[in-house]
Each structure stands twice: as C-alpha cells, then as structure tokens.
Amino acid sequence: MESKKSSLGSSTPDISPSAAPSYAYALGLTQFQGFWIPSRHVPTSSIISFQKYFQALDEDIIVVSKPKAGTTWLKALVFTIVNRHSYTLSNTPLNSANPHQLIPFFDADLYKENPNPDLSKISSPRLFSTHLPYSMLADSIKRSNCRIVYITRNPFDIIVSLRHFFRFIDDWSVEDYLEMFCRGEEPYGPFWDHALGYWNMSVEKPSNVLFMRYEELKEDSVAQTKRLAEFLGFAFSMEEEKTGVVNQIVDFCSFNNLKDLEANKTGKIPRSIIPSNKLFFRSGKVGDYVNHLSPAAVERLSNILKEKLNGSNLTFN
Ligand code: PAP
Fold it and tell me: Which Pfam families match (predicted)?
C-alpha cells in the first residue's frame, strides 16, 4: 500500500473510499459532538471550557466560518468597520498584525491557553471568532443578544483552497480532499451541517445571525460591506457614504491590499502551527475550482449537497 506524508511527518495509509477512518486519523480529526474537530490543533478540552465558562455580552460580535470560507477577509472588514472611529486606515493595527491576531478564536486561542480566561477587560464590543458549528457554541451566546456573522463559500473553492493551504502538512491530492468532503470528514465538517446550523439561525433570528457568502462579498463588496456594518450596529452615515469611507474600507480589506501588508507578507502568528501569514492569501478568486476539479467530481459533491440540503432553501451554485 502506498504511503503519504501526514501532518506529523509520519507515514499514513493510502486513502481509498473503503478506508473510512484514514482521513480523520491522518488529519488528526476527532469526532466530537457530531462534527470532525482538528483535535491536534484544537483540543476538545478547550471547546468544553469555552462551552462551560464563556459568558456572552449583548454587545459581543462573533465571526464564524468554516476554514477557507473567507475568515481572514471578514475579520479584516469587521475589525475595520467597528474601529473606524478609533483608527484611520493608515494607523489601524491591521497594518502590523494579521486579522487573526486582532479577532482571536475561542477554541484555538483563548480557551486553549487558559480554561477560564479573564475576558472582562476587553473593550466593547468584544470581537471573537470560531470555526465551531452553531450547535457547539456556548449556551450563553445563544441566550444573549450578541451578533454572529457567518461566512460561507462554495465548497469546491474551499476544497481547492484547503488543498493548497495544507501543503505544509500533507501531500494529498485535491481528489483526496474532495473525498473527505463527500464523507463529511473534513475540519469542522460535515460542510452541510455546519452551513445549515447558521443558515437556520439566520432565518430564525435575523437580527442576531447574519449569513454571508464569499461570492457575494466579492461580487458587490460595497453593498455587502454596508449590509455587514448595518447588521453590526455600525451603519455608515450618509456623510461617510458621500465621502467614500465605504470604498476606502473595501479597498483596504481587499485581497491585493491585505496580502501586500508587511505583517501578512513576512509575519507569522506567534505559537500558531501555520508557518507564515502568507498562506492566508493565495489567489482570492471565485471559481478557481474549475482548474483543479473534474466536472464529474463537481457533480458528485453537488449531488450529495442537494440531498443534504434538501428542504432547507439553502443552495450552493
Ligand atoms: P482561514 O480559515 O485559514 O482563516 P480563510 O481566510 O477563511 O482561511 O480563507 C482563505 C481564503 O480566502 C484563500 O482563498 P484561496 O485559497 O482560494 O485564494 C485566500 O486567498 C482568501 N482571502 C484572504 N483574504 C482575502 C481577501 N481580502 N479578499 C478575498 N479573498 C481573500
């Protein structure tokens, strides 16, 4: 049996559709509370601590996504919108820090280092993030009036983006990654359950959960940024719109601008397993999957998605 390089540099069994546990094993995924958690990176104990101890405030803002759906971009936009009266674009901390450093993850950052961190001194609104599904959020979030912004992306581009990103830990093919998605056995997967959890809540509680799509943000960045700001309670004034503030924020947070900032070109997040911030910026395009996935592969996952999302009004084109 052929061997492939795994995240720990050891050999793992070849992956075939019949080798059901291989992906989870080799990627260090643990099935926990119904989802596949990358437990080498995010210990389940940090999730339990977060669920047990986190006390949400009504003013909190939580950025949520599956990996590679547009997290970095959304964090940059949320940080800039919320802090635009404190920082200009020339002195914003985004010039010297990656967006992930400014909006920490509950599970991978805050509760990983300390089971019950003191978050009371963070100025309001507190900005947090997570890749966890809705069902795994702390109950205090669900009971509070805080705001959750969820971003999703067509899973085909996510697959290609993940494949490129994880080159530093494995040498699987894009087909392997597709197989993983078809089984729902990918980081924070299944994809459909993750998306449906937030989709349903955005329908049920639209003033608490905003459902965004990478493709829509790309297609009309200005309109989507205004929608985001309004949802967050930081709507742009007429004056700001007239003087071009929205366009300036959109341009500042664009792929081309962010990727060329020194913090993203040469920086690395301390204690992170990600070797360079450069990896968060690859091509930033919609539809790149056509260059990597065969039509048959796309059809296969499309059919699974159709079945899984049936009856929900949630679709992916
Ligand atoms: P993460 O979950 O590891 O934080 P995330 O930021 O969600 O990753 O996704 C990275 C993708 O967003 C990359 O996509 P690609 O591989 O298809 O290129 C990355 O290039 C893209 N990206 C990062 N910043 C931006 C941006 N400002 N505008 C558009 N796309 C972006």
Answer: Sulfotransfer_1 (PF00685)
Domain 36-308 fold: Rossmann fold (3.40.50)
Which of 281, 286, 292 has most ligand 1 atoms within 8 Å of CB, for mutation? 281
User: Which residue is catalytic, options 41, 100, 131, 194?
Assistant: 131
Ligand 1, atom 24: nearest CA belongs to which residue? 73
Is residue 41 annotated as part of the catalytic site, yes or no?
A: no
Decide if 157 contacts 213 (C-beta within 8 A). Answer: no
Provide the Cα torsion 217, 186, 179, 305; round to 10°.
-50
* Phi and psi, residue 31, nearest 5°: -80, 120
List, for residues 127-181, the tens digit of each pLDDT value: 999 999 999 999 999 999 999 999 999 999 999 999 999 888 888 899 999 999 9
Q: For residue 118, report the distance from its CA to the centre of ligand 1, in Å.
A: 30
Q: Looking at the CA of residue 257, tell me the nearest atom of ligand 1.
A: 27
Amino acid at 45: S
